[in-house]
């Protein structure tokens, strides 16, 4: 059975043109004029684009004494309703737990996924077992390792552990990811604020200023450079972090930055809302920033110094957020966004002229497919690619509301925002997975996507390797020992 999407305008990261798209089974088999198929989908007036890929989600994540509220079922339903056809979650081994052991839990959780999915492996502790298991993780199709530089006493790893892990990544064709915030300084500021009586959600923002993020990004870049490995900085939220990334790139280093749709569009004034619950709902790390930082992130996406827009989708219910009444450090960190990423980015980015349509596709799909080594299976409208396709109506409008969302929680941080530009249909590997408000894909329809190792890339600057390659000097005149 073939399906042809006719009369639409195909928009990819490279170009925009009138063409039909022919799907046979789970693949795109032809793109061009006047194609015929068994079933015809009329895309007149609409754009035909690669499905979104969200490389940063946390479903059913054990975190801060609870589990994030969306599982792979509700979370990937939200994804499909928002035009995202693939998600990448984080596998988090517990203290002392093996990587392969932890992966079993994540495969099990992801059995409920409606979209295709992949995982990043988190390095939450360091030891011989982790060192030994990293290549086994890569051989299972996971080529990225995440490092938390914050969450001291829980997920945080220190510089020596990061350097060891980054060096291992370099050997095995994997790429390290960092959550970049100086966890020691955050922990100190949290204690200080609490001691001074600043226990409300605004304390969260004060405890994680942009400087702590900028410092950690610079440090991670230095460590990656010494290890000779590319680096991906998740949730790049501020100018200090962006500056470090663009400076590194200008020196020829492969460093990637990932702003979130939340940081691009929501600002720190949310934490000063007199309603505790309103502010607590928006507690995430890094926190929302001011307009200056937002402008920096938008500029980075246009300039190419930042490459990807993600969500860090990590939803917590009001009841869960209330764990932090009287102590902001106990408010579970995280917000949703999977259903809203593409419509909000289109509305605030493409419709305002900050991004072209092609840049929109690049930052929501194609760039991350390349970075994660799954292009052109994903992120492309090309013969041979998986038929993960969205049909996008640029004139469709809605007001974002928790009442109609697929996420399991009772609120939405984008509540009330009017969006213009929505997916009307999403296809996942050739099957209609979403149509006009209705998720058609079943729980369990998603498949694990293997991401092969990259050829190891030494991204070192021109001189350091030479300087650090040890050369023993034969010496005379050594003073007699004492
Ligand atoms: N930040 C969040 O807000 N939630 C999950 C983990 C993280 O780093
Ligand atoms: Zn993080
Ligand atoms: Zn995250
Ligand atoms: Zn099905």
From TrEMBL:
One GO term (biological process): nucleobase-containing small molecule metabolic process
Chemical reaction(s) catalysed: 5,6-dihydrouracil + H2O = 3-(carbamoylamino)propanoate + H(+)
EC number(s) from the headed UniProt entry: 3.5.2.2
Residues with the N6-carboxylysine modification: 146
GO cellular component, as recorded: cytosol
Keywords: Hydrolase, Metal-binding, Zinc
Amidohydrolase-related domain residues: 47-416
Pfam families listed in its UniProt record: Amidohydro_1
Signal sequence residues: none
Cofactor list: Zn(2+)
Record's comment on post-translational modification: Carbamylation allows a single lysine to coordinate two divalent metal cations.
One MF annotation (Gene Ontology) recorded for this entry: dihydropyrimidinase activity
Top-rank taxon: Bacteria
Annotated InterPro entries: Amidohydro-rel, Hydantoinase/dihydroPyrase, Metal-dep_hydrolase_composite, Metal_Hydrolase, Metallo-dep_Hydrolases_sf
Entry similarity comment: Belongs to the metallo-dependent hydrolases superfamily. Hydantoinase/dihydropyrimidinase family.
Function text: Catalyzes the hydrolysis of dihydropyrimidines and of the structurally related DL-5-mono-substituted hydantoins, to produce N-carbamoyl-D-amino acids.
NCBIfam families: D-hydantoinase
Subunit text: Homotetramer.
PANTHER family: COLLAPSIN RESPONSE MEDIATOR PROTEIN (PTHR11647:SF1), HYDRANTOINASE/DIHYDROPYRIMIDINASE FAMILY MEMBER (PTHR11647)
Protein name: D-hydantoinase/dihydropyrimidinase
Natural source organism: Aurantimonas marianensis
Gene designation: hydA
């Amino acid at each position: 059975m073939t399906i042809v999407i006719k009369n639409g305008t195909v928009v990819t990261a490279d170009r925009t043109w009138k063409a039909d798209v022919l799907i046979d089974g789970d693949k795109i088999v032809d793109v061009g004029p006047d194609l015929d198929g068994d079933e015809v989908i009329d895309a007149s007036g609409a754009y035909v684009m690669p499905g979104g890929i969200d490389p940063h989600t946390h479903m059913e994540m054990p975190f801060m004494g609870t589990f994030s509220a969306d599982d792979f079922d509700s979370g990937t339903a939200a994804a499909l309703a928002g035009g995202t056809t693939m998600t990448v979650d984080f596998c988090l081994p517990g203290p002392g737990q093996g990587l392969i052991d932890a992966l079993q839990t994540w495969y099990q959780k992801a059995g409920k996924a409606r979209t295709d999915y992949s995982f990043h492996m988190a390095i939450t502790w360091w030891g011989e077992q982790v060192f030994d298991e990293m290549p086994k993780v890569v051989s299972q199709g996971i080529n990225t390792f995440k490092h938390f530089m914050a969450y001291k006493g829980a997920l945080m790893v220190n510089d020596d552990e990061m350097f060891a892990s980054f060096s291992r990544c370099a050997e095995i064709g994997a790429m390290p990811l960092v959550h970049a915030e100086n966890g020691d300084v955050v922990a100190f500021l949290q204690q200080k604020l609490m001691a001074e009586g600043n226990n409300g959600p605004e304390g969260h923002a004060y405890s994680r200023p942009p400087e702590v993020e900028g410092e950690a990004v610079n440090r991670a870049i230095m460590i990656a450079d010494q290890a000779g490995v590319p680096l991906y900085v998740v949730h790049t939220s501020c100018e200090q972090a962006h500056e470090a990334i663009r400076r590194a790139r200008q020196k020829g280093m492969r460093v990637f930055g990932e702003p979130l749709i939340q940081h691009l569009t929501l600002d720190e004034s949310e934490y000063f809302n007199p309603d505790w619950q309103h502010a607590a709902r928006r507690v995430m790390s890094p926190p929302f920033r001011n307009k200056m930082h937002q402008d920096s992130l938008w500029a980075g996406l246009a300039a190419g110094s930042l490459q990807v827009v993600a969500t860090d989708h990590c939803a917590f219910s009001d009841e869960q957020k209330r764990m932090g009444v009287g102590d902001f450090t106990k408010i579970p960190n995280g917000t949703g966004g999977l259903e809203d990423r593409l419509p909000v980015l289109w509305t605030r980015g493409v419709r305002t002229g900050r991004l072209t349509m092609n840049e929109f596709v690049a930052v929501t799909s194609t760039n991350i497919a390349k970075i994660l080594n799954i292009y052109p299976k994903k992120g492309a409208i090309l013969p041979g690619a998986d038929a993960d396709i969205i049909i996008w109506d640029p004139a469709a409008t809605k007001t974002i509301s928790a009442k109609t969302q697929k996420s399991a929680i009772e609120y939405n941080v984008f509540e009330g925002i009017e969006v213009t530009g929505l997916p009307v249909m999403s296809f996942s590997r050739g099957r209609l997975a979403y149509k006009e408000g209705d998720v058609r894909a079943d729980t369990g329809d998603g498949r694990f996507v293997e991401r092969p190792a990259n050829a190891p890339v030494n991204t070192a600057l021109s001189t350091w390797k030479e300087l650090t390659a040890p050369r023993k000097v034969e010496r005379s005149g050594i003073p007699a020992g004492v």
